[in-house]
Design brief:
Number of strands: 4
Number of helices: 7
Oligomer: single chain
Largest sheet: 4 strands, antiparallel
Strand order of the largest sheet: 3-2-1-4
Shape: elongated
Helix content: 40-55%
Strand content: 5-15%
Structural class: alpha+beta
Order of helices and strands: HHHHEHEEEHH
Length: 198
């Protein structure tokens, strides 16, 4: 991912719900908002359908952290977008993945992540957070631009589409069934959750 100094900057004007919230917090610039979001605790939210849940709970994941920043960018007419990606989750990223891979006899666990895109630059405001990952997610099997507040259901449908069209037909996954990967993914989510809580 790219350095935060490549993020666009602009004065925050009170033009919508998100911009007003940042101004209420004393944050006056777009880059200042990005720094604020980056520095807020990493943690799972209780309601991903609530666009303001990040502010209410004072924590967020890649999903909610990037959603509020792209929501702010939209209000300020900054061409910065949220992309969802499917990546290969391995021991290199999180300690404990190898046990899951051995159990299910698979080379990696397909997982989803999201990041920001501005021009040719990519940013992850959760990089360096206590998010259970030892390294940034730089390589994706598939990535695409999405609505900043994409529903959990739509994100899962995107994941399933990538699973069917790109992952299952690949040489690496020859002979492996979809249900096996979905069970491994569930275990991977539990592993990440436990890493965050410790």
């Amino acid at each position: 991912m790219d350095s935060y100094d490549k993020l666009p900057d602009a004065e925050i004007k009170p033009v919508g719900k998100i911009s007003i919230k940042f101004l209420d917090l004393g944050i006056k610039t777009f880059r200042g908002a990005c720094d604020y979001v980056h520095n807020i605790k990493y943690g799972y939210n209780t309601n991903y359908e609530d666009k303001m849940i990040f502010f209410k709970e004072k924590k967020g994941t890649c999903t909610t952290k990037h959603a509020v920043i792209v929501g702010l960018a939209q209000e300020l007419e900054i061409p910065l977008y949220k992309h969802v990606c499917v990546y290969k989750f391995t021991e290199e990223i999180t300690t404990g993945v190898n046990e899951i891979l051995k159990k299910f006899k698979i080379p990696y666990i397909p997982m989803t992540h999201c990041f920001l895109v501005y021009e040719n630059y990519r940013f992850d405001l959760t990089e360096g957070n206590h998010n259970g990952k030892k390294k940034p997610i730089d390589d994706c099997i598939h990535a695409e631009r999405v609505d900043p507040f994409i529903s959990r259901k739509d994100e899962y449908l995107l994941f399933k589409k990538v699973l069917k069209e790109k992952i299952l037909p690949s040489k690496e996954m020859e002979g492996i069934q979809e249900k096996t990967l979905l069970k491994a993914r569930a275990k991977g989510i539990i592993l990440l959750t436990n890493c965050i809580l410790t």
